[in-house]
Amino acid sequence: MAGGYTGKVLWVDLPSGKIEEESLGEDTYRNYLAGYGPAAKIMMERQKAKIDPLGEENILGMTAGILTGTPALFSGRFMVTGKSPATGGWGDSNCGGTFGPDLKRTGYDGVFFKGKSDKPVYLLIEGDKKELKDASDLWGKDAVTAEEALWKKHSDKHRVAVIGVAGEKLSRIAWVVNDRGRIAARFGLGAVMGSKKLKAVVVRGKGPIAVADKDKLVEINKKFLAGYQKGFGLAEKNFSAILSPMGHTVRMMNMVTRMDPFPYKLLMRRWGTPGFTRFSMLSGDSPIKNWKGSAPCDFTTKQAKRISDDSVLKLQTKRYACMNCPLGCGGILEVKDGAYPLPETHKPEYESLASLGCMSLNDDLHALLKINDLANRAGMDTISLGHALAFACEAFERGILTEKDTDGLKLTWGHGPTLVKLTEKIINREGIGDLLADGVKVAAAKLGKGSEEFAIHAGGVELAMHDPRNDPGYGVGYSCSPTPGRHSTAVIFGEMQQIERKLKGVKPTPMLYSKNKRLNLEPLGANSAIGEVYWEIISCAGLCMFGALTAGASYPVFEWINAATGWKLDQDEFRIVGERILTAKHLFNVREGIKPKDFKMAARASGRPPLKTGGMKGVTVPEKHDLNYYRYLGWDYETGKPNVQRLKELGLDKIAAF
Fold this sequence. Notes:
Aldehyde Ferredoxin Oxidoreductase,  A, domain 1, 27 helices
């Protein structure tokens, strides 16, 4: 082993308590990097098809990236993997904070769990000590309280990944929590953890993480930072009058960032993702009123301002950053007054502000922050929760749900206190909350009465807070990715990362989109596929997407990996690695019987029927605008099956299920 990875993982058999080490070998890392790359290979080889995601045969993984914990900048992330109870296919979640680096310092690149425990347990990895410990006293506690209790048992230097009540109650929109509110979200993997009676993983890592060429890593960092940190002084000043209220479309922002990420970097430095909330809500980027409304018609400029940028920032008491992060976009807030005082809570991301805000027409910031804090403590996905709240409001508006169904709650649009109460019911699976706790697809199937029409999801995963009617590139990612509903691989992100200077095959697209007339849709699918290939490399390296978005072409991901590992992979070899990881995840879904049509996003999100007001009035995303995604990767558009020759070229023909 040259460096970057430890070469070892742990296997924990929950029924017996037996814990064993396994060496994966350098070829595994060269072919799949680390993180969820090797996890995809392991699950294809060792897990049977068609198993119950909440059954004992599902393998749950927690893994660190190949650069996690090394001197490389932005290298603080870890991943959670397993068969998703939301989609029935592949699931992976990604999170920053302090847990990933410490997991790696214990001497392991990851830990995999088999079977189910008959009582609540947590795994402790501390030096040479590796043992399952009783967690009965932690079961029923929220994630923050449980983490604090584990600190008292061990120390506040121990790092914790834990589930809250949502995971314990097997909510299919549950997530995994670390750092008292940092989240590995989406795909219901918190429920997988809960199904195994695994409350937490606690690590205390003190060992060094070897790298092949530390001097080279430091040199790359210095060269990168010399350009990256220029202008940070500007970010400390209030320039919201220029950047924060930017209107039109998010792609207007991209016109600037494509040439130079400088403005986006300053925005993220000052506000974090709440900095673009206002212009996203007013531009058509944010879905309004469960995807059937528009701004400013249904959600005004004043309402957007109340839950965006400076309105959030004035409550911030401190900024924080993940390991080795020079950006520092995170923050801790304090709410001193109002109906929902919060002495300490994490600053919500844009996705949470939109899903818990304009999706249900809620402009009550204090209620929104309370809902976000409840979700963080419960370990519940805020994007999915926001959809559930909006779905319930629309069902109530249509008379499908009544006060009799809701235990007296009047689910009118935009009433923050009612949304807080409904959130508490969802978390605890109480009354109407039990209907909504597994997401909108399950809720609509149970409720019926035409509610399927306004359950907005792709393959069982609620869509992220970016509207394909504004930018159809998002629709490609939502419907085509092996992990549907995810926005991180959309064309706009590829453009902002300037991946045409990283990987070959990207064709530039015009900057503006208006009613399907000015955007050449032909490159969208292929560009999204290439963007997702690049995303797999960034993720499995353990790097942050925001680093890539704020650095553009200067983001030295390939250089960092080569310096850490001692490899000398070129651009084309990295592209093959990324495509191999992406295709392995897709093969998992094919084996489960999932076809491309099963992940198609809800019709309303594509403008069927089209909106009657706002900037996206009359816009409908064309059919088959995602076709070139499948063509580029060599996957059949109807069956999803990859081309056999392409599988051989990627070395995946032996694990293919056909």
